[in-house]
């Protein structure tokens, strides 16, 4: 008879749930992860990893073509089949056995099944068919359809991620559009692809499938791509997308989607899709809804602990869910809607795991800003890279967001191509950087760069913003010559130093 009591029950074994479980086990607690699909979650199998694998080969090809001396050696085209094969190797063909081995080694029990809360500190799991748990420390075997009730001594952490949101456009659901899951796992390129939405998902995947041979139309509701970032970021990416052959349409409303008749070629003959917009009709073979995320808490049993199902979970800075008596429910990662990025969710998981372990020892572990028990960086120092070509890297606040928060700001902007390191890196480097400075404290609060490999400029900016490094000290952080990072010096000079 298995022991069904654990110190910590983690619901959802995505990247975030894994880190949380690992953290509490390292602090001496026992932990079980309940995962209904693949251990490793969205990032490993349908998001970060496959999307970046799809993008990387095209980027490498263009990089070589843009350096005189190397370009002459590049005579072929992108090998789409090899790119897809490489993508499959990163997802291990959607097999999570290595992750389960990792969990075993880390002393984490894994149960494969669907979990729901059933009152305080209690979780009911409907085991998957042929439950492929790791049988770890708690002894987990079990057969499909069977229900098992788990009890937590200290905490339950809901790390159930988020789901793709499909908007209420007439006909869209009926034609079963691609979501990010399909667009990261597809085995061949549709001839014509419409992408709705130009956030990170739409911007990256439009590029990936254009590289792989699809004729892509990107439908942007706003006046620019990447509308929540500094305006120049979306403008640079849109220009590159258009030059690469993508039809980027802005200020467009998608009115309806319907399937046209096939050619009468028998079973399996599906006709193309007609996408009606206020700028005319587009006929495509596939449509991707890259239209944001929604909570995946609808069937989590939140009503049994006094919370409303189907909502993002509201947490304090230690990722403890607000409004739950006894304070035993936590949530890290997409589910708390603080910052929907793998790295930031894993940061929350480290903070949350430490807070749970400290409280299990009887400590108060108050989420005081910048303490080990507070995910303070979520509030104004979240780094992110959009892996388009050119890349967009940003951390902290945009100029507008800083103004909206009541700050008095001054900005400095610089063309990255003017620094020697950038000119050497690629012929005709095109890129732009912007620093946002809080004039009261004279510290940087935001940084955005767009350009080839701009993502590698980001961590310096993150350190400066998290460290609230005053500009007169930042002045002494000398970038090595000739690196692209010299843009830092130029930004400070442009600012007036
Ligand atoms: C196309 C795409 C590209 C992205 N690229 C990047 C990127 O480059 N960098 C980056 O930082 N972020 C990226 N993101 C965002 C990133 O994927 C998410 O922020 C991250 O996956 C969130 O991790 P998580 O563990 O919170 O959730 P998930 O990875 O979604 O994990 C949640 C897990 O919970 C399981 N689950 C749900 N409900 C239950 C239940 N009731 N019982 C048992 N198990 C359950 C699910 O099966 C899932 O495995 C991308 C997102 C998309 C869509
Ligand atoms: N490189 C990365 O770090 C990376 C990559 C991909 C995704 N992500 C994360 O995944 C999450 C989801 O990304 P996303 O791009 O799907 O979401 P998003 O919310 O950033 O962008 C969705 C876009 O779809 C548009 N949209 C929504 N409904 C629409 C409609 N009916 N018609 C036309 N347009 C519509 C919105 O206006 C918005 O611009 C984000 O939070 C992001 O942080 C990160």
TrEMBL record:
Compositional bias ranges of the Gly residues kind: 132-144
Region (Disordered): 127-146
Pfam families tied to this protein: Pyr_redox_2, Pyr_redox_dim
Annotated S-S bridges: 43-48
InterPro entries the record matches: Class-I_Pyr_Nuc-Dis_Oxidored, FAD/NAD-bd_sf, FAD/NAD-binding_dom, FAD/NAD-linked_Rdtase_dimer_sf, Pyr_nuc-diS_OxRdtase, Pyr_nucl-diS_OxRdtase_dimer
Residues reported in the UniProt entry to bind NAD(+): 197-204, 292
Names of the cofactor(s): FAD
Alphabetized GO MF terms: dihydrolipoyl dehydrogenase (NADH) activity; flavin adenine dinucleotide binding
Superkingdom of the source species: Bacteria
Signal peptide: none
UniProt domain FAD/NAD(P)-binding: residue ranges: 6-336
Keywords: FAD, Flavoprotein, NAD, Nucleotide-binding
Domain Pyridine nucleotide-disulphide oxidoreductase dimerisation: 382-488
Binding-site residues, FAD: 52, 334
PANTHER family per UniProt: DIHYDROLIPOYL DEHYDROGENASE, MITOCHONDRIAL, DISULFIDE OXIDOREDUCTASE
Protein name: Dihydrolipoamide dehydrogenase
Organism lineage string: Bacteria, Bacillati, Actinomycetota, Actinomycetes, Propionibacteriales
């Amino acid at each position: 008879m298995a022991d069904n009591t654990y110190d910590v029950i983690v619901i959802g074994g995505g990247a975030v749930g894994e880190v949380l479980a690992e953290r509490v086990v390292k602090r001496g607690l026992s932990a079980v992860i309940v995962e209904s699909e693949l251990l490793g979650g969205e990032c490993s199998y349908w998001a970060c990893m496959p999307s970046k694998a799809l993008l990387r080969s095209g980027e490498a090809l263009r990089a070589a073509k843009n350096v005189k001396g190397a370009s002459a050696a590049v005579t072929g085209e992108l090998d789409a089949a090899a790119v897809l094969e490489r993508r499959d190797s990163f997802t291990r063909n959607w097999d999570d056995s290595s992750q389960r081995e990792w969990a075993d080694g880390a002393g984490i029990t894994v149960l494969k099944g669907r979990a729901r809360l059933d009152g305080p500190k209690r979780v009911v799991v409907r085991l998957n068919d042929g439950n492929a748990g790791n049988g770890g420390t708690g002894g987990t075997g079990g057969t499909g359809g069977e229900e098992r009730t788990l009890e937590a001594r200290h905490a339950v952490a809901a790390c159930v991620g988020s789901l793709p949101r499909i908007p209420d456009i007439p006909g869209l659901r009926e034609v079963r559009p691609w979501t990010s899951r399909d667009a990261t796992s597809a085995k061949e390129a549709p001839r014509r692809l419409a992408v709705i939405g130009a956030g990170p998902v739409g911007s990256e995947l439009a590029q990936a499938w254009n590289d792989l041979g699809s004729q892509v139309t990107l439908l942007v509701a706003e006046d620019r791509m990447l509308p929540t970032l500094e305006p120049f970021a979306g403008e640079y990416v849109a220009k590159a997308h258009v030059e690469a052959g993508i039809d980027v349409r802005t200020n467009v409303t998608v009115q309806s989607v319907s399937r046209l008749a096939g050619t009468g070629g028998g079973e399996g003959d599906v006709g193309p899709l007609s996408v009606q917009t206020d700028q005319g009709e587009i006929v495509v073979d596939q449509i991707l809804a890259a239209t944001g995320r929604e909570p995946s808490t609808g069937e989590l049993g939140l009503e049994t602990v006094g919370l409303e199902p189907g909502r993002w979970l509201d947490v304090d800075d230690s990722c403890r869910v607000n409004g739950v008596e006894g304070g035993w429910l936590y949530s890290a990662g997409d589910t708390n809607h603080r910052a929907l990025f793998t790295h930031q969710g894993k940061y929350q998981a480290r903070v949350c795991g430490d807070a749970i372990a400290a409280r299990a020892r009887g400590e108060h572990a108050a989420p005081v800003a910048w303490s080990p028990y507070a995910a303070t960086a979520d509030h104004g120092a979240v780094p992110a890279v959009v892996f388009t070509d050119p890349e967009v890297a940003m951390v902290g606040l945009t100029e507008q967001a800083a103004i909206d928060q009541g700050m008095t700001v001054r900005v400095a902007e610089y063309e990255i191509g003017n620094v020697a390191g950038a000119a050497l890196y690629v012929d005709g480097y095109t890129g732009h950087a912007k620093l946002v400075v809080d004039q009261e404290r004279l510290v940087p609060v935001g940084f955005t760069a767009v350009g080839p490999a701009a993502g590698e400029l980001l961590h310096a900016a993150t350190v400066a913003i998290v460290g609230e490094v005053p500009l007169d000290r930042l002045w002494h952080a000398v970038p090595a010559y000739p690196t692209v990072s010299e843009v830092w010096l130029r930004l400070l000079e442009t600012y007036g130093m």
